[in-house]
Design a protein that fits this description.
Layout lengths: L1 H7 L3 H25 L7 H12 L12 H38 L10 E4 L5 H11 L7 E5 L3 H11 L5 E5 L5 H5 L8 E4 L7 H18 L5 E5 L5 H6 L4 E4 L2 H10 L5 H9 L8 E5 L2 H4 L3 H11 L3 E7 L2 E4 H4 L5 H13 L4 E5 L2 E4 L12 E5 L7
Parallel strand pairs: 1-2, 1-4, 2-3, 4-5, 5-6
Antiparallel strand pairs: 7-12, 8-11, 8-12, 9-10
């Protein structure tokens, strides 16, 4: 009982609410006993109505005390109400302003579902947001940025992205669980981990690794895509539960190598994924049940005749990966390991196994085992 009472008045705002409630109950009971019951009225709701109207100093005048005792009670309630209601209004305004300030500073938990999370920030991050907007992931969805940018940098970024209330900030070190928890990763649609600007390559990868380990315990279902600076840290991030990893500079170096044979590789790549003034031609969709009954050659002919699109690759979707998938059922040692995990109550989920693709297979390949399709959208003759 003591703990409950102590919790009830733990803050000044709660103390004020308790005082107002006590005054309302006491004045309602007093008005009922002094005024209504002697007159033969047994309507306690009228007593509550009088107490609220008097406490808030509204004073409708539909119910008024007739006795001296009732008027004294009314004077006490009115005088008390002026101070209490004014203080309550000020406290409510202060709480609203404080919450807005905390939200602007990234100190409050965002309560979202189906949102996109970007952890860390660097000079390439703006391109990721632009691509997400182009592909439709942020058309109506929310974006949560987890980083330790200064307030003026966050304000400039919010102005640049122009997403209004759909942009949220979570301030702090992404390696800390309490910080990542505020971004609601358990209900996120996808999570990106970027190498934080201003850190050395080793420190940036270490922060990404800590963030990945924490994320995988908080978000078992959401796919996690990460950037890595040092190629030797790629395997560490994969073991931490990251779905896919892109080493920084790897794509650029491969493109530069291909350009040695023909410089047309670069404008082709720009048109493929979208860059600067080149809209992306690459898109993805799930295969329909009728398409799964086709062969690759039949799919190409059907797609070209239907909308002019050109199929490029078949995809296996990501799937949940568990410890059972990695262990050999015929091995006594593997079965013993699995039993230890089961008996101890530990999770056997290992995150998600990344997607796999088949690029431009033979025409007679059957599509039953595949889930989706990467294809090029048809371009108008004017572009």
């Amino acid at each position: 009982m003591r703990l409950t009472a102590k919790t009830l008045i733990s803050t000044p705002f709660r103390k004020l609410l308790v005082l107002i409630t006590t005054l309302l109950v006491g004045s309602s009971v007093g008005f009922y006993i002094i005024e209504l019951r002697p007159q033969g009225h047994h309507d306690y709701l009228s007593a509550i109505w009088w107490a609220v109207v008097t406490l808030t100093t509204v004073g409708y005048g539909d119910i008024v005390p007739a006795s001296t005792s009732g008027r004294i009670l009314g004077l006490f309630v009115m005088i008390s109400g002026i101070g209490m209601v004014s203080t309550l209004t000020g406290n409510l305004a202060s709480i609203i302003v404080e919450n807005r300030a905390k939200r602007r500073k990234g100190l409050l938990k965002v309560k979202l579902s189906g949102h996109v999370i970007i952890i860390g920030w660097n000079s390439y991050a703006r391109n990721i947001v632009s691509t997400l907007q182009e592909t439709g992931l942020l058309t109506k969805g929310d974006l949560v940025l987890v980083n330790s940018l200064a307030p003026e940098e966050r304000d400039a970024l919010a102005f640049d992205l122009d997403m209004g209330n759909r942009l949220h900030f979570v301030y702090g070190n992404p390696a800390h669980e309490s910080v990542l928890h505020r971004s609601s990763p358990a209900t996120a649609r996808v999570v990106y981990i970027l190498s934080q600007a201003g850190l050395s390559a080793a420190d940036a990868d270490q922060q990404s690794l800590y963030a990945a380990l924490t994320l995988r315990s908080l978000a078992l279902k959401a796919p996690i895509y990460s950037e890595v600076v040092l190629a030797e840290n790629r395997d560490h991030l994969l073991r931490a539960g990251v779905s896919e990893i892109v080493p920084r500079g790897e794509v650029a170096s491969m493109l530069l190598g291909r350009m040695g044979k023909t410089p047309s590789v670069w404008p082709f790549f720009q048109g493929l994924v979208g860059s600067r003034n080149h809209p992306s031609s690459l898109d993805y969709r799930l295969l329909g049940s009728d398409e799964k009954a086709m062969t690759w050659g039949e799919l190409i002919r059907t797609s070209r005749s239907r909308d002019g699109s050109l199929p490029l690759a078949l995809c296996h979707e990501s799937k949940d990966l568990t410890l059972q998938d990695m262990l050999d059922e015929g091995s006594a040692l593997d079965q013993f390991i699995l039993e230890l995990f089961t008996l101890s109550g530990q999770q056997t989920s290992l995150g998600q196994q990344g997607p796999s693709i088949m690029i431009n297979p033979a025409d007679d390949l059957e599509l039953t085992a595949y889930d989706g399709l990467l294809f090029l959208k048809a371009q108008s003759t004017e572009s």
